[in-house]
Amino acid sequence: MRRTVFPHRWLPWLLLAPQLAITLVFFHWPAAQALHDAFYRQDPWGLATQFVGWDNFRALADDPAWLHAAGVTAVFSLSVAVLALGAGLALAVMAERVVRGRGLYRTLLIWPYAVAPAVAGMLWLFLFSPALGTFGVLLRRWGVDWDPLLQGDQALALVVGAAAWKQVSYNLIFFAAGLQAIPKSLVEAAAIDGAGPARRFLTIVFPLLSPVSFFLLVVNTVYAFFDTFGVIHAVTGGGPAKATETLVYKVFHDGYVALDLGASSAQSVVLMVLVGVLTLLQFRHVERKVHYA
Hints:
By secondary structure, this protein is mainly α.
């Protein structure tokens, strides 16, 4: 491999400077500010602050609203990850079997990833509106008491569907690339030996997709915890009766609506730690079952 030599020692840092600046300003600085504010109680205008130590963190354990949001987040994140990964894998497998127009099918399936989360949420809200939405009206005609603006479980199902639909295209891209990297000779040899399509997929295709699946599992978990805020905010606003209020949405509500900056900062720190621990557990336990060819 040929080694790249820069003419000046500062040129690599100069090329990295824009990305480093963005990371510092939009990631590290807000994280450090949140960690600092988590130990203080301050007025909404930030004019007066009082050091309270771990009081903001202790209050979370006794806050029923935060514990409820943690439960909603667990159900929501697991549902989004499972649906998005399963649908992405299924669509990638079906698109791989298309002989003519495969590129067109893949392009059409990838389009939803370009839709902003808030726009995706509004699309699903219109489609499943009980009064005007196509699917909402059909559900009511079929006898389903469908009203996601009043029924908490239906509202949660709606935002789960919208968030998963938004992420399916991302998963499809990586699964399709992983399927193309699998040697066709292995699948053909198994077919000659008498293995059916289901057995070939479970014993050959899916194990060889395990590196891609593990990567997407981590990415989808982070997505479900953080990047689904726009969907929830556009569709339900955390309602009805906080049925769709996840931890990241509660951070926003307590910080920007209730103006309790100390509690909001403490929640953001706890959320960051939870996602970090969950990702670490995935790398420590799930990665052991990953087969790298």
